[in-house]
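Contributing new records

If you add data, match the layout below exactly. Sequence lines come first and carry their own label; structure lines follow with theirs. Keep one chain per record. Anything else will be rejected by the validation script.
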Amino acid sequence: MEGKTKILMVEDHKLLRMGLKSILEKYPSIEVIGEAEDGEEAIEMAKRLKPDVILMDIGLPKIDGLQATKKIKESNPNIKIIILTSHTDRKDVLQAISYGASAYAVKDIKTDYLIMVINSVKEGAIWFDPAIAPIVRSKNMSDSSDKVSSRSAFKAEHANLTEREYEVLKLVVDGRSNAEIADELKISEHTAKAHVCNIIQKLVVDDRTQAAVKAIKEGLV
């Protein structure tokens, strides 16, 4: 099975789980190596099976998908987690990415797009469903004085980000891969990667996911 993306599915509804597994198994690059029905089982199976990517629902028995994500990432930071849910609440989105989720997708996502997200996330990208990114931004960019002050302070603190790096950061928050950033900004993929590395260093974070979380929480984008 070398080269295949190993998937652990976490979904408490059996019919949904069976349907998704049937769809995923049609793709030769995907291997479903396990299925969990609740958060506790997901944590145990993640430790034992060490999947590349976990598709995680939020509304799970025993331990919900957000807490399961947190615990799995604490023990297995290299495992990529895609939240696949019907929940679109801003609090859930921010909590998911703060706990280390690499992507947040709504369950009506098209199959081909989900495969793209899985492949991108495996390579280190982050991704927000188009239905999610505007919700996060619009609520984050409220007119409250606290938010305005926070944004101003954050921008002042990170004034060493160049205009181009701000453009790249916005695309990172949108979940774009380095290749997609390069295509959008008409630069080479190598240059896009260099910008992302510079942003990570300047924001004093460990990876692009943390950079996106910091940018969203502080209202930078």
